[in-house]
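dumping this here before i forget
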Amino acid sequence: MNKFLLLLRSENTEEENRYYIRAIEMFEGEVVFVRDTDSYDVVLQVLDDVVGILLLGGYDVGRLDYFLISYAVSHQLRLLGICQGMQSMALWKSNNHLVSIGGDAHHQKEGYVHSVSLEDSRLQQILGSSQIKVNSYHYQTVLDSLCFRVVGKSFDGLIEAIEDSSQYFQIGLQWHPERMLEYDDVSRKLFLTFIK
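structure:
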């Protein structure tokens, strides 16, 4: 059974974390945890035994985000960044910052909120479509991505998906596919590919 590291953020509730845990376990992955308060030594011990890293959503880039992204890239691990996890991937090695969107157009509670257009990319191949519908739970965005290629944008031009286009699964998504598994085939395809 493949093991996946989840970075648990102090600001997230147990209910929010359950969505991520369920998404991995649904496709027969095993979850191991580190907390954003853990030391680098503790995190390194856990990393010895995993094939992938899931960077969860949250409020801001934490001190372990860049450390885990660097490790995933240098060790060719699978990497999935969701919401703030994607933002961390986009900001990695750059001098850029998160910016406020303004308004609630990208922060709705349930169901499909808007569409995302995908460029020809690994993500598009995995999902089998160049136009998908997604949920949306964020007040901040990134204006660019330095080390990962931008491959998806929303109707109003916000960055929604980034990836390393090599053979490794290293993808960031602005939306929350872990909350869509009950009703969305695209989300299930994504996690199946990530876990298997």
